Amino acid sequence: MLAKRIIPCLDVTAGRVVKGVQFVDLVDAGDPVEAAAEYDRQGADELTFLDITASADHRPTMLEIVRRTAEEVFIPFTVGGGTRSVEDIQQLLRAGADKTAINTAAIHNPDLVNEAASRFGNQCIVIAIDARRTVASDDLGSNPDADITWKVATYGGRNMTELDAIEWAVEAAERGAGELLVTSMDADGTTAGYDIELLRRISERVSIPVIASGGAGHADHMYDALTVGRADAVLAASIFHFGQTTVGEVKRALAARGIPVRL
Amino acid sequence: MIALIDYGEGNLGSVAKALKHVGCEVQMTNSPEVLQAAEGVVLPGVGAFDDCMHGLEKSGLVDPIVELIATDKPFLGICLGLQMLFDASEEGEKAGLGVFPGRVVRFRHDLKIPQIGWNQLTKVHAAPHLEGLADGTWVYFVHSYYVEPEDESIVATTTDYGITFCSSVRRGNLFACQFHPEKSQAGGLTILDNFRKLASGT
Asked: Tell me, what's the ipTM?
């Protein structure tokens, strides 16, 4: 049967992987291609590169990383961060990326989702959604009857919009997104667990795969996201980057609890 | 030399890199002459059935492909490159290449569609491409439709996603798979290496 996917995420700036918590104290963590190859060796099911360079002239550097990664790593990888147009997507796919993640650009111009899906196929198009609760809470667990609203953030979480996250997720799916990458701004970087209720509500409204992001600190968090949260995959950064655990370790822990994983 | 068919609709880059990684000399082409001269031919394909068939037609490749398959030249079809070998698809209006009788149908259940991710192969009939792969080998899928061959003897592997569906076919030197060997790490590279050996006659 189909396995749940564990997807390490690598933040890249100026051609290097960076580690940091919520963009503070970024530390150079090496060559992205080497990092990708290491995660591949650990058994990652896919990889995601997030280009966090602020400036607009970063694109050739990122494309070179994509090309080199495609030469050495034979698992799917997704590239996101600053993808604004169909031309950007085409360049990334031609360089060897399997999927592209689009966030802000799709919110500003939702027709881009339709256009990209129709031009490249919906399997290449991941719509990334950064969501924040309108009322902060310490309890991000399952709560089906609670009256909770999430709004969407743009520009890497720096700008809040009035857009309802659940409704935008449904719309993105209808417009042709192949998958949704759902990041909880409340949970991100806390390593205290994903926003399970956010995931659950989106997963029950869409029939495309949902990738959970934001908050993983332990394999048990992933277990909750993949069961109660009904996610099909989990993205994680901090949990792996700081060497607390490996992809293999979390997969074995999940397998021991009955989650189908590729081992 | 392995000819990789370029008709505007495949993830050529990934497939080319993986083939090169296992030692193939790869030429991307839409020329029937190059296909004829090649030791083996790869037909990739992602996206929609009609778009891909249209791409083949526009490039004048329909007859050359059917002919080279008829001569049993080593042939590897990937994803849409498997689906197009059949008569027709629920996804579109166009006829397929009609190499194998059967239809392409959509997953019809309440699981997520497309099937995206790693799933396992159950070997049904032998194929040189599967040499060295155990039952349960993990490979990467991304698709909403699957093939229903009328002739079950060509089914090389099945996979379970709500139902048990045909995940690859084999007939003679032809092998075509629904999954992406170029994205399936060790298992996928083994399949490509077996294809290379078959094509070069080693």
From this structure: 0.91
